[in-house]
Specification:
CATH superfamily: Aldolase class I
Oligomer: single chain
Helix content: 40-55%
CATH architecture: Alpha-Beta Barrel
Structural class: alpha/beta
Amino acid sequence: MRGLCLILDQDLLRVSPEQAMRQALDAGVKFFQYRSKNGARKSIHETTLMLSRIARNAQALFLVNDHADIAAAVDADGVHLGQDDLPIEFARKLLGRDKLIGISTHNLEQARAAEAAGADYIGFGPIFKSSTKDAGQTQGIQNLTIIKNSVAIPVIAIGGINQANVQFVAQAGADGAAVISGVLTAPDITLAAEQLVSIWTNFRRNT
């Protein structure tokens, strides 16, 4: 749950999810989520089953967005929930203690509630203005630092993160940075991911 997390958003992918994952793996990405807000559940199951196998063979972490039951069915490493998804305690019953459960949070109250409920990590944001999802008011680096200092579980920053600002997220102490359009809409997925991984690694090493 550390480093660069690539969210494979089906609505933004310009290549197949498999191609995007393999290209990002070539760039050194080891943490993935698959998100499909509009897809049929059967299609999500088929796609995540394939991605879960690829990630496992590459010794990468793979989570399913929103759907705890599908995450369990494909033996993913876990699920990432939103505030309106299945509560953490029920997702835990489906997945067991050995799987990861993360949840998106947008303020200190939600972050502390997630930790108390047994989340393994939280996503926090949007740090910067996001072009992929309306997740509410921009939180900024200062609030990211506050959240990081207020919970003991890992904090993954999300929202508008790209090559121009990922260093500020690293300097703020975030355990990871989730990116979407900064990689998926780039002309070269591998190159964009390599740049982000390099920047992140350099700045985290020096903080």
